[in-house]
Amino acid sequence: MSHNTSLEFLNMVKNPSANASNKRGSGASNRSTTVNNMAKGAPKSIPAPVPKEVPKEAPNSHSTIAVIDTETNWYNEVMSIGIALADASTFKCIGAKYYIIDPEYRKGGMYSGVLNITKNIPKAIASRQEAMADISNYLRENGVGSLYAYNAKFDYGHLEELSDFDWFDIMRLAAYKQFNSFIPSNAALCKSGRLKSGYSVENILRMISGNASYCETHNAVIDAMDELRIMELLGHDLDAYNIAKL
Question: Is the pTM here over 0.85, yes or no?
Answer without folding.
Answer: no
